[in-house]
Amino acid sequence: MDKNNLTKLSRFLSFILRHRPEDIGLSLDKNGWADVDELLKAINRDRRTMTLETLQEIVVTDDKQRYTFSNDGTKIRASQGHSINVDLELTAVEPPDVLYHGTASCLLPSIMKKGLEPQNRQYVHLSSDIETAIKVGSRHGKPVVLTIDAKQMQADGHKFYLSENKVWLTNHVALQYLANDT
């Protein structure tokens, strides 16, 4: 399959598994898993064409590793980024001392009033390196990288989770833990 069609299918898969499975008549379990056979049938009913081989190619080649198959390969889910309530079965882990959040400069005034909020997602997404934060911020405009004092947040009782695709997640980042060094 050509790269353009693969990208379109990957974006559609992301939308379905993270936000709107019901749009194609799909149900996710409480942990965000979809049955692979049901997913493929639902996508193909929706006037798109996806085979198991195409789905496997999307999962393997996705640069952000957005998707995960179950150990037996019969289920699939998005690794993080959900706007629907799912339990990804994440365990709180100790974060690095500092984490980063990439955003667009136009969003900075709002962030500096309220801190980082998950908006329409379950968690605030953070990265362990500045380069990733810049990439994320660039998707929305002129990038700004915020530094998060994760060590102090954790000491104050805040929890951090590391998704399967290595995105750091937390519920909220209050202003006292944020620094804008730009």
Strand content: 15-25%
As for the number of domains, it is: 2
Architecture (CATH level 2) name of the largest domain: Alpha-Beta Barrel
CATH class of the largest domain equals: Alpha Beta
Supply the helix-strand structural class: alpha+beta
What structural keywords apply?
182 residues, alpha+beta, Arc Repressor Mutant, subunit A, ADP-ribosylation fold, 2 domains, 3-stranded antiparallel sheet, 9 strands
Describe the structure.
The structure is a single chain. The chain is of the alpha+beta class. It has two domains: 3-78, RNA 2'-phosphotransferase, Tpt1/KptA family, N-terminal domain (Arc Repressor Mutant, subunit A, Orthogonal Bundle); 98-180, ADP-ribosylation fold. Helices cover 32% and strands 19% of the residues. It contains six helices and nine strands. Helix 1 (3-18) crosses helix 3. The mean pLDDT is 93.
Please provide a brief summary of the model:
With 182 residues, the protein is an alpha+beta fold. It has helices spanning 3-18, 36-45, 52-61, 108-114, 130-138, 150-155; strands spanning 34-35, 67-69, 75-78, 98-104, 124-126, 143-149, 161-162, 168-170, 178-180.
Layout of SSEs?
Layout: H1 3-18, E1 34-35, H2 36-45, H3 52-61, E2 67-69, E3 75-78, E4 98-104, H4 108-114, E5 124-126, H5 130-138, E6 143-149, H6 150-155, E7 161-162, E8 168-170, E9 178-180
Antiparallel strand pairs: 1-3, 2-3, 4-6, 5-8, 6-9, 7-8
